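Page 47, continued from p. 46.
Same chain as before, 104 aa.
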Amino acid sequence: MLFKLLAAPLSLPLAGMKFVFQQVADLAEQELNDEGALREQLLLLQVQLEEGDIEEDEFAEREAELLARLHEINERKRAEAEAIPAEANVDAPRRVIVETPFDE
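Result:
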């Protein structure tokens, strides 16, 4: 107990830094796997092409990059879904049904 009190000035800021870094990592992973953002970028790219802001060559190159990233996200999600069996999904809602002889 005494050690925890004496170490608090060092351990609390470190725990706070760990929390912040974990939040940043979670946000980066979420953005990396966000299909919506890629779809918005594809739409914006199409609008830029139609308005003449970019050339066809640049459009094709950037579209290929975005579609490749979208394909990678889908493949990663599919691999994760195959790797985790349905029984191990702890986030799935659970329902317990208890039958008693008095239910009739």
